[in-house]
Amino acid sequence: MESETEFIRSSTADDCRDVYALICNMEEKELPYAAFERIFQQQLKDADYACLVYVSDGKVKGCINLRMEYQLHHAERICEIMELSVSPECRSRGIGKQLFDEACHHARQEGCTQIEVCCNRLRTRTHRFYEARGMHNFHYKFSLNFASPQDSENRLGR
């Protein structure tokens, strides 16, 4: 349960380093900070994006980053979870569920008719999390890395 010292809010420019650390942990690699910061700042200014952070005792412990767009194949506004990450020491405490629930609320307020997420096939624990939230796996996602088009191995941390 959220208290005065635990709450979810929209991220600000001051949250960039904390969100960066969460996303690097999720991706199991260090991303280039300058590029991350540039994208983070751009998304803060774009109404089609929303980054929500979970704060506990004044520290960001989790984040969920959303993109909302009108999609031709739905003919509706759809919300996609781009990233969801909780600090390793805070996992399995319901923070991810609270972030997900708040993201759904935000998406509905923004006129979205559904929420989607792409998730690496190797993240089976994450799959169970989304299934427990009532989500269904209806799609395949295909990728082509322009820097290494011959690389077909699915691995985390690259």
From TrEMBL:
Upper classification of the organism: Bacteria, Pseudomonadati, Bacteroidota, Bacteroidia, Bacteroidales
Keyword flag Ribonucleoprotein: no
Organism: Bacteroides caecicola
Pfam name, any one: Acetyltransf_1
Protein name: GNAT family N-acetyltransferase
Keyword terms of this UniProt record: Transferase
Domain N-acetyltransferase: 6-158
InterPro entries per UniProt: Acyl_CoA_acyltransferase, GNAT_dom, NAT_camello-type
